[in-house]
Amino acid sequence: MMQTLESAPLQNTPLTHNAALAPVRSVVQRALVPKVQDIDLNGEYPTTILTQLGEAGAFAHGVSPQFGGTGLGLKAAIQAIEEISKVCVSTGFMAWCQVACTWYLQNTDNTALASAFLPDIAAGRKLAGTGLSNPMKHFADIEKIALTAVPVEGGFEISGMLPWVSNLGPGHEFGVAAKIADSDEYLMAIVSDALEGMTLRCNAHFIALEGTGTYSCVFRKVFVPHSRILAAPCEAYVRCIRPGFMLTQVGMGLGLVDSCIELIQRSNQRLGHVNQFLEDQADDLELDLQVARDRTYALADRLDSCQDSAEDMALMREVIQARIAGSELSLRAAQSAMLHAGARAYVHGSAPERKLREAYFVAIVTPALKHLKKLLNSLPEPALASSL
Description:
It is a single chain. This protein is of the alpha+beta class. It is 52% helix and 13% strand. The chain contains 13 helices and eight strands. It has helices at 17-32, 36-42, 47-55, 74-87, 89-106, 111-122, 133-139, 235-275, 282-303, 306-309, 313-341, 351-364, 369-378; strands spanning 128-129, 147-152, 155-165, 173-180, 186-192, 198-201, 215-225, 229-231. Strands 1, 2, 3, 4, 5, 6, 7 and 8 form an eight-stranded mixed beta sheet that branches. Helix 1 packs parallel to helix 4 (74-87) and helix 4 runs antiparallel to helix 5. The longest helix is centred in the middle third of the chain and has 41 residues, at 235-275. It is globular and about 70 Å long. The protein starts with 16 loop residues before the first helix and ends in a 10-residue tail after the last helix.
């Protein structure tokens, strides 16, 4: 039987960026569109859809062919997240979680760990989260580290509690960071609820992103062997992965803004005669979206080599600025879609109402807009070009 593009082995299918998006779009239209309300309002976790997106290559672009990926790079990864987020930011966020975990594994020096987990996570056969919200805030002096790792024979025992980690479920893998006891150093590892002493708790309901498999994770002396350690100490490793972690999130915002523009254009078919007096018209937002896309894609091409970008403060500044722009443009576009739709947007479950809730998430998910602006303020000012 002839293999379809969606099921063909990724490593044997030479892809362009456009060709890589085609099977993702197919899954989105065929499987995701009919389930958006169930995911958003009923909190249904879309296991089958995520698996299908993995089969379509959505999580594999930041992964080298050595580990079963396409090797197309972070630009293609961002574009896949963008396509998914046009329809459902909840699912786009879960796709980002999956991509982020592949980024951790792609850039570890522990090649045995990468070989063991990366092919299955990249292909969506195993689902995965990130678990780095707390450590990213900790390293920015916003909150204390939540996990402590005690060295023991063969690895570490990790204890503590992470309040919210997404894209989780029984057997899912996710990345964590912990402070190594009696030292000033930290480690990063890949863990799972399958490890003894780990408990997942669902203890909150959200106004958006309800169907994202978000749990509190309780660690009670969870033994994590050296074979699961991404880096220890991990400060240089975190500097290496952080720009890609942030930039791939912009795909959620790009997709959201694109869909808001479509809603505005649809509203204008009936209300254009009065909507013309509102700020943030569709044409204005389209221009800003294209600028944001061009900037994000260009940065992604520069970030494909994690090692080369780790100490580049000028590049880090640009990544933060791109992430800020994605948040602020999302808020503008979603508010404009609400105002253009008028009273119809106030119907519970309407598309503009969902876009508004999703836009706040883009601006609040770690690193949040205030976190990003704090980071930007902490970076050294770029050197001024000398004048003649």
